[in-house]
Amino acid sequence: MGFGFGGANPGEPGYKGAMKLISWNVNGIRAVHKKGLVDFLKRQEPHVVCFQETKCQKGQLGPEFHEMLGYNTYWACATRKGYSGVATFARVEPKDVEYGIGIEKYDSEGRIVVTRHPQFLLYNIYFPNGGSGPERHQFKQDFLRDIRAHLKKKLSEGEQIVVVGDYNVAFQDIDVYDPIGLSNESGFLPEEREWFAGFLDIGFVDTFRHLHPDVTDRYTWWDYRKLARIGNRGWRIDYICVSQGLADKVVHADILDHIEGSDHCPVLVEIKE
Length: 273
Fold this sequence. Notes:
Blueprint: E1 18-25, H1 29-34, H2 37-44, E2 48-52, H3 63-69, E3 72-76, E4 86-90, E5 96-99, H4 104-107, E6 112-116, E7 121-126, H5 134-156, E8 161-166, H6 190-201, E9 204-206, H7 207-211, E10 221-222, E11 234-235, E12 238-243, E13 250-255, E14 267-272
Parallel strand pairs: 1-2, 7-8
Antiparallel strand pairs: 1-14, 2-4, 3-4, 5-6, 6-7, 8-12, 9-12, 10-11, 13-14
Helix pairs in contact: 5-6
């Protein structure tokens, strides 16, 4: 199956002087590559694209993939092969790159790449899934606490920050298809929603809700096992959030829910200079 492009794409380039940023949990970048990833990137022409759950090492895609697109690529790979992993592709080489946040239990799972761009620090993050049992639930809660503390410190130092990725948390009732039925599910638990509220309170803005505060039935993940994309029984758990100093520079935010190839779809933002 290839990508379902449909008709005219509202996320195509068109905002002069704006940086176009795409984030996508690809659930295996090699599999998505076979389904037309290069064509998707050529069509969208993002300045920066951030992938989560790459499930591979950089060299496994081959040099022709990178040369074809003309991106500088930065990979955080898990110690365990075929698991987790994030990658940031940037047309203009970042001023600085960091892999992880200096906490081994997270960094060994390849969850974070940080790149410095002229206007902001960009955090590409694959937040843990806590649904497999009590141990991973606690791991996720620890991660949420520690990443918020890390980002709060960066904000206090005067940084402007963009945080993209699969957060594995839905925040508002309108971010899931069945808020009552899912209220005890990992990813929509009260403590996780409370964490998201606290994350916004330290100085972040959810770009999609900033521009589309009341829009419903727009999701970024659908459960494969339940064939949930049929009928749009989804969750909005993939975000591009920006520090408050960047909010007024956001000129476009969208969910590319017509794009297939993964159980997640890409999300997009354009930030003017």
